[in-house]
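Hi support team,

I submitted a single chain yesterday and got back a structure, but I'm not sure I'm reading the token output correctly. Could someone confirm the output below corresponds to the sequence I sent? I've pasted both exactly as they appear in my results page.

Thanks,
R.
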Amino acid sequence: MAEIVVRFDRRVIEKIPRRPHIVFELIGFIFSGWVLFPSSLILMLFDRPLGFQMLEALILSMVSSEILKVVVGRPRPQREGRTPWGYSFPSTHTARVASLIPVFWKLSTYLGIVVVVVAIIVAISRVLSRAHYPSDVVAGFLLGYAMGWFVTW
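Hi R., thanks for writing in. Yes, this is the structure output for that exact sequence:
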């Protein structure tokens, strides 16, 4: 099974240009920890419980993702213009955004759907920027969602 996933991942990555478009890099930056963590702190000023749940979900998803990266040790895809650093599996960017789905869904179905769409955009951008393989973002999505669910449960 794992070999089928790895073959699929490589086929997808081979079809993506080695030099990613700047838009995908920008999406990665916007939904990185540099933006999401301060956003949760700002949200605490207006709605302390919601901001705290957001922060908890972000921290849990990031820590669990980073631990899995070290355990699995999967190298990132090769890309032009940048030496791959760190590990690829799972995608922490995707995990962070997906962890917010249950948090915002609990508040409003509409907000939850918006966060689902954003998480999918982030996941796709991480593959198209050659920062991750498809299975990395799927695993990051599932892991992040589970951490968000745990926080809101």
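A quick pointer for reading it: Helices lie at 2-14, 22-30, 33-46, 48-72, 92-107, 109-128, 134-152. Let us know if anything else looks off.

Best,
Support desk
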